[in-house]
Amino acid sequence: MQVIKTISEARKIRQQLSGSVGFVPTMGFLHQGHLILVRRAKEENSTAVVSIFVNPTQFGRGEDFRQYPRDLDRDLEMLEGVKTDIVFVPSEEEMYPSANGFNSWVDVEGVTEQLEGASRPGHFRGVATVCAKLFNIVQPTRAYFGEKDAQQVVVITRMVADLNMNLEIVVVPTVRESDGLAMSSRNTYLSPRERKAAPVLFQALSLAGELWRGGERDAAKIRRKMTALIQKEPLARIDYISITAPDTLEELRKIDRPALVSLAVKIGTTRLIDNITLK
Amino acid sequence: MQVIKTISEARKIRQQLSGSVGFVPTMGFLHQGHLILVRRAKEENSTAVVSIFVNPTQFGRGEDFRQYPRDLDRDLEMLEGVKTDIVFVPSEEEMYPSANGFNSWVDVEGVTEQLEGASRPGHFRGVATVCAKLFNIVQPTRAYFGEKDAQQVVVITRMVADLNMNLEIVVVPTVRESDGLAMSSRNTYLSPRERKAAPVLFQALSLAGELWRGGERDAAKIRRKMTALIQKEPLARIDYISITAPDTLEELRKIDRPALVSLAVKIGTTRLIDNITLK
Fold this sequence. Notes:
279 residues; 10 strands; 2 domains; Pantoate--beta-alanine Ligase, Chain: A,domain 2; 37% helix; homodimer; Rossmann fold
């Protein structure tokens, strides 16, 4: 496994690669969800590249950029374990050189103003921009993203199509703990009591699935029942519960086509997100 | 010379190319200035690719998108004459498919709000975005731009650096008619009387050069004398005259370093731009 830190090194190595390249961009502090992305990248391509970069531009003021968990040694060990070929670990200075300033952004409109975008202004500008940068550096054949960040998948898919980026986006199902909690690096913030409360997100999503399979098509009714379920958990505070078209992220009143049910809930001070698709 | 119309065809052909690719993005209605770019691209690379696409997203409301001159047959003949290898001529539908909508934009801040950006809001968003798209399709080793569009060069150079696009931007000096008028597809709009008036832009720039070589370092004084010269021409109406740092486009009061002198002047209803660098 090669660990590289500079863009120029990455370019040099990329040039020498033949065959397809599968790429998994991450912010590190890896969990099983990431490793499954890497395994897919490895299976489907000649070379698997993982990046670890906690991207400052996707965090808003007052968000957890400084506290975001980091453990590079552990990450590298885990990546070695799944036979990653190349790990790209750029510094902040390498990605956003302070001498030059940084002025260029990728803005994806229409699918970034709602849901996470509404709660986290500027978040998707940072996400789209850093992904554009990483794609230009790594030049992957395929890039792998987890379904847990559903809106991120929509934004990146849109960007790749609109800007004719020459790669395929592969979306991989969410990996869950045995009690249903979606794996996330931020789960590490949870106290033991909060950790016990956290599966309420998936319980609410599962309820939505049951109601829908039972024939319920009224989005407001489903949201109300999800809200009631979550409100029974004293540590939980709902940020949003949303039922949208999966590609445009437009809210649905009547679920007369496939639908993305997504939610953000604060458990104590930790904000968690999760989603399922009804289809 | 291969003429291709679709992105999928372009990708297929690009994959088969070995060696370096020199790329000249144009809006067609070619003149000597373009051909010199293509000659450079051809000299310095294994393959020379030219695109012809009148990009709607870089024209504002009320600008000349519909009237912009087009003559594909003549363009192709001229490109054949300079031994262009590949011409990419996508339709508007190919570049901005109406079925999907188009939502992703490259915004370059800090160098797009002034000069052309102030007179033409949204212009550089369109320019940066279409260049990003074309770069992703053509995947050039080098892309060639004329110095006449000085701010465009600054914006694209900035975008390529910030987003780590894997290509080199080559800037080629402005080509002028014998009376100094910078070549431009828009010169075709000029009536014979206006055509006679149009060299006033270069005369004003030359005056700035003389004053500077004579030791004048006060930007306001130079601008005043340029203004006076242009105002003697009854068909001319100044949009802006600017003296800035060439990379940041910040206005200079005192010319104590290299400086970009640029101006936009309407000759009748035709808006022309030109510039020189003092160094």
